[in-house]
Write a structure and sequence with these properties.
single chain
């Protein structure tokens, strides 16, 4: 059975109560950056991770995923110091294994993470969403570290995986690669490699392992294909979908906007049926929701009230699909 999770920052907040009241029993957590740590502790060390997991459990959640990363830009670029960065990932994976946290969501986006050109695009009823228009960034300067090719990123990713996959296998932790967002290359001189269905298959084939897999972020994958349910089945038959971001967009990789879960270009019911067909038993979380009246847009895409609508919509889809044979 598929399970609904919610992304909950490590510090308890009203969002924790709202998510629980909406019926989410699983937590997708970050690393406790900025939280008080004992002397010598780092956010990926055992004790900070233990305290965070305990906080989730005391609030009634089971922690299913860590969706946060130690610094990794040197590793992505293959620069001096990358081995020390990879060592921190190995420490994280070992401690996740000790604590029974089964999935680590990571990405291979260099210099910057997900990118939008607007966080105030008008949507239904005066709500606002994020959007991206490549025409607005084509003349943007290169990033501080300068251009990097896709070929180099493939080389550094292979180096990284050959280091961490054996550690993850021993720890019993699954590595779930998130797509580039947007799935477009290059941006500001920076190549992006996790941007097509074919490239994700290349990732899986590059270092074959039961722990080398995918975060199926629907908002990105639906920009890569005209048949998202088919892609879900393709990777699901290989048992490579470890975590799902359930969201939608409207547009193309070069120009798109986020949407309400019921207003995008994807057949969300068909996607849910595909997850049932492949026997997916992990967690799924809503992602990148609209900001609605009365809520703050300070963390665009992650307003609290928009998540409640998403959880309800997803719960309805699950009941519709899993109640029928």
């Amino acid at each position: 059975m598929i399970n609904i999770a919610e992304f909950l920052p490590p510090t308890p907040s009203p969002l924790w109560k709202l998510a629980k009241q909406a019926g989410a029993d699983w937590a997708v957590g970050g690393l406790p950056f900025g939280e008080p740590l004992n002397a010598g502790d780092a956010p990926w060390d055992y004790m900070p991770l233990l305290r965070t997991r305990q906080a989730y459990e005391h609030a009634g959640f089971t922690q299913a995923v860590i969706e946060s990363r130690p610094p990794l830009n040197l590793a992505k670029r293959g620069l001096p110091g990358r081995d020390a960065e990879i060592d921190t990932v190995c420490t994280l994976l070992e401690n996740m294994g000790r604590l029974g946290i089964p999935v680590w969501c990571y990405e291979w986006m260099t210099d910057f993470n997900w990118l939008r050109t607007s966080t105030t695009t008008a949507s239904r009823g005066g709500s606002v969403v994020t959007s991206f228009d490549d025409a607005l960034v084509r003349d943007a300067p290169n990033t501080e570290l300068g251009p990097i090719s896709e070929e180099v990123l493939w080389e550094t990713l292979e180096y990284f995986l050959k280091r961490v996959v054996p550690v993850a296998e021993k720890a019993g932790v699954k590595l779930a690669m998130h797509p580039d967002d947007p799935p477009l290359s290059p941006i500001r001189g920076v190549g992006r490699i996790m941007r097509s269905v074919e490239n994700f298959q290349r990732l899986l084939d590059m270092v074959p392992s039961p722990v080398n897999g995918i975060t199926l972020c629907q908002g990105n994958f639906t920009l890569m294909t005209n048949d998202l349910p088919g892609v879900i089945r393709h990777f699901g038959r290989q048992n490579k979908i470890f975590f799902v971001h359930f969201r939608d967009v409207r547009g193309t990789p070069a120009k798109f906007e986020e949407t309400w879960h019921d207003a995008g270009q994807t057949d969300m019911l068909a996607c849910m049926r595909a997850y049932k067909d492949i026997g997916f038993e992990g967690v799924l979380r809503p992602d990148h929701v609209p900001t609605v009246e009365g809520d703050s847009n300070s963390n665009a895409g992650y307003s609290s009230f928009g998540r409640l609508y998403a959880i309800g919509y997803i719960r309805g889809l699950i009941e519709a699909v899993y109640a029928t044979e």
